[in-house]
Amino acid sequence: MIEYEQHNDNKRAYIRDIILGINDGMISTFLLTVGIYASGLSMKAILLTILSSSLGGMISMGLGEYLATKSQIEVTNAELEIEQKHIDEHIDIELNQVRNFLKEDILINNESLITEFINSMRTNKIGLLNFMKRFEFGITDDDIRNPVIAMLVSGLLYFIGSLPTIISFSLVKRANISFYIAIGLNTISLFLVGALKTTITKTSIIYSGGENLVYASIGGLISYSSGYIFSSYLIKN
User: Fold this and answer.
1) How many angstroms separate the CA atoms of 37 and 223, rounded?
2) Which DSSP category does 123 fall into?
3) Domain for residue 178, yes or no?
């Protein structure tokens, strides 16, 4: 007998924060490092820039997610208040929408079942609001994100994502060696993050991990070229 596989429930609501936080911390910090390394700055200047960028990014990411999530909740609540007013004052219009959802989305064609359901919703306004919440606005309780949790997850994971680069330039005093160590650590980390994502997305480990590497590599080439051009032509001239 095939085992019944449980859904991810509310955990899926924070997948965006997890992937965005750690990927952004890893890629942003590394690409910044590539650019300033190519510009020929000293080891101390590179490390200071990395640390400043990592801490600043962590704070910015965390606060950004908090404000964005809180604003989304406020917008949703405002819409639901309007919906409640519609149910209280224009219930026939709302019940007609329910009829359309039953026919077009749930594909129920039995008129007696539709009529019975609509009549039950007429006296069950809480149930009607929950129905419209799901079908008109696409909102479920499992998709609602806590602003504080979103802030902590994205902010802390941004900093964790920057650690491969910080460690590389903290442990070794020669910039060129640190740079290659950073490339190695970030390559492994990017692939692992992409691979771990597949435990929920159920996609290919190779494809997901490789996708992370390809995007980071393209960004790395652009960042290195920009830093090299800036130091070779703009500063010297």
Assistant:
1) 10
2) T
3) yes
> Residues 6 or more apart from 69 whose CB is under 8 A from it?
145, 146, 147, 150, 151
236 located within any domain: no
Work out the number of other CB atoms within 10 angstroms of the CB of residue 109.
9
Count of domains forming the chain: 2
Q: Whose CA is closest to 83, among 141, 131, 120?
A: 131
Instruction: Tell me which residue range forms the domain holding 114.
Output: 81-143
189 and 207 in a single domain? The answer is yes
Q: Answer yes or no: is 37 within a domain.
A: yes
Query: DSSP code of 18?
Result: H
Q: Measure the CA–CA gap between 50 and 230, rounded to whole angstroms.
A: 19
pLDDT band at 207 (very low <50, low <70, confident <90, very high): confident
Among all chains, which residue has been given the structure tokens 């936080």? 21
Asked if residue 76 belongs to a domain, the reply is: no
- The CA distances from residue 81 to 10, 37, 48, in Å, are 24, 54, 49
Instruction: Tell me: do 180 and 137 sit in the same domain.
Output: no
Average pLDDT for 18-31: 84
Does 137 share its domain with 196?
no
> Which residue, chain included where needed, has tokens 């329910």?
98
Q: Which of 20-24, 138-142, 174-178, 186-190 has the lowest mean pLDDT?
A: 138-142
Helix/strand/coil for 144: coil
Is the domain of 61 the same as that of 106? no
Q: Are residues 122 and 167 in the same domain?
A: no
pLDDT in tens, 98-149: 999 999 888 888 999 999 999 999 999 999 999 999 888 888 777 778 899 9
